[in-house]
Amino acid sequence: MASFTFPRDFFWGASTAAYQIEGALEADGRGPCVWDTFAAAGRIMDGSSAAVACDHYHRWPEDVALLTQAGFDTYRFSIAWPRIFATGEGRPNEKGLAFYDRLVDGLLEAGIRPMACLFHWDLPQALEDKGGWQGRACIGPFAEYARVCAARLADRVKDWMMLNEPNIVAIFGYGQGAHAPGSTLGEDGILRALHHQNLAQGAALRAIAAEHRRLTLGTVVNIQPCRAESDKREDVAAAALWDAVWNRVALDGIMRGTIPGLLIDRMSGFVQPGDEQAIRYPIDLFGINYYSPNTMKHDPGAQFECGWGDPRCDRRTFMGWPVQPEGLYQQLMDFKDNYGNPAVFVSENGAAYDDKVEADGSVRDSDRVQYIRDHLESVARALKDGCNVKGYLVWSLLDNFEWAYGLSKRFGIVRVDYDTLKRTPKDSYRFLSQVAKSGTL
Known about the structure:
Blueprint: E1 11-15, H1 18-21, H2 34-40, H3 56-70, E2 74-78, H4 81-84, H5 94-109, E3 113-119, H6 125-128, H7 139-153, E4 159-164, H8 166-175, H9 186-209, E5 216-222, E6 226-228, H10 233-256, H11 264-267, H12 275-279, E7 285-289, E8 294-298, E9 306-308, H13 326-338, E10 344-348, H14 366-384, E11 389-395, E12 414-416, E13 423-425, H15 427-438
């Protein structure tokens, strides 16, 4: 593609998550979450914690300035549930709400559209102690938390995303134990966590909509095309089943009010009458987080007998993930062809690389520049082919606490020196800034 001009109303920006950047974990009445417990148990690979992270809680004006200087017009941030309700329920914490008041006001003053995400993995530990996403104990508290946040901020925040990547929470948090809360409950644990997040999402959407009109309501899912490693029947079947688990429980639930046919029997033990109607909701904007496709093969020893296959790719990120930007085009077109072409946006897309700081302090992250360019070409192709794509948000604005990897993996277009907390824009920041300001790739 020689050149492409994006629509004039196409929005540009960055996404972050509260737990990964805010720090100040014990400040102003914040309660503990499952990731605090996970880190305290020594489960973070590099031994670090998010106690300081990027110190965004105190340095947010500097980070808003970075958004402004880049020419971005949108910022998706998450609200920390345990800052608003220390135990996940009860009386809201005024100091926590006041922090997001300040952040939102600062964004609006800078001309940046605030996009709030209500759950980016930081489940209050007290709710996990009641069963977490394995049961229905979180549904009512999440809906009330959503209602309280909207009551406080909806006069200024018009875009509300309910969940971020419920599939990752379910698979790695409850099924495989690699993420908080660190449970290894297998296939049943994964499907229960998916279903109960879906129910909480539906309840939260209704709670907000009942009190506020003219808001943009949506959610965010990590969507990865699931491909078979070979044309063997068992590999094709594994890819289809993993697609149902990874993608379709979340997608079909909210978009269609259905459970994927391949999983109906497996989920019948905890799906109650009326659940599918409770899960479905006509959202306004769907966020797609995309990093790479999933190449699957039949593996009798893996969960769902679905193992990771060889993607046959010669480019990988520092996470070991294959770089296959055509998968983003494929997934955007899947929304157009199979879900009625709803309004979607790329809510996360980015890559971790082993960035090197030059002698002059600069970061020449050419691999990340190429990664972003290639994926923007896929977005441009999808737009040309009629997909209703509204915007692109890079993951992430800042290097940050990368969950179980700690501070060892850097996704930011801005480098953070974790000793001094100095922010240094990388070449990828300047590249995306140029595209955002010109509207042309």
